[in-house]
Amino acid sequence: MPRVTITVPDRTPQPYRFQLDRRVVSLGRGSDNDIAIDCGSVSVRHAEMVRVDGGYEIRDLGSTNGTKSDGERKTVSPLKSGSIVHLGDVAFEFQLSEEELTALTTEADELAARPQDSSEKRDVPKPPAVPKASMVSAPASSGAGGFFMFILFVILGTCAFFVGMSIRYQKDTKKSLINELFSKPRVVVKPAAEAEDSAKANAPDPETPAAK
User: Fold this and answer.
1) Residues with Cβ < 8 Å from 148, sequence gap 6 or more?
2) Average pLDDT in the 44-72 region?
3) Residue 212 predicted with pLDDT over 70
4) Average pLDDT value for residue range 132-150
5) Which of 28, 51, 166, 203 has the smallest C-beta neighbourhood within 10 Å, fewest atoms?
6) What's the rounded Cα separation, in Å, for the pair 197 and 74?
7) For residues 175-185, b (16+ Cβ closer than 10 Å) or e, as one string?
8) CA 67/CA 85 separation, integer angstroms
9) Do 70 and 61 form a contact (C-beta atoms < 8 A)?
10) Rounded to two decimals, what is the model's pTM?
């Protein structure tokens, strides 16, 4: 059983014993502590002796005068057999028997030999999946697409206009506009006799006196 001896100045030392499996022992001036210390330099809730893996440590609870180990004020101090810690002006001495030392040493060795990743494995979140690059080719730029659409619209409009004109021309003339556009013009050649007769008909009469 771990032994704790509390020595208040000018008073008889008071020994306390605890089971090895005791997890927390509270110390302070208040009467509700496991070890009540009647001294003005000790706070109401001064410190705790805590059982940790492989041993003990003493933790200050924000006391006014602090908890000192080796003359230095510390928040947490490990406890070994023979350690002396001061709570304010009160001496706190910690002792372990040979059996307790052996048990704590064995416990510490087992903890040190235990693989860090075999007992508890934390679930590490997987990084978000990165989407694969699309194999579809990128569309053409909006400027080029708009230009081609405009050209196509003009061509279709022209074709529609030409078809409409062809239909109307055919109704009016009973002829095909396409044939009229692409047929060769006919040249009418009059015979020589017809040309001579036409010239005589248009010539003035010699017997007709000229107009004055």
Assistant:
1) none
2) 95
3) no
4) 59
5) 203
6) 145
7) eebeeeeeeee
8) 7
9) no
10) 0.53
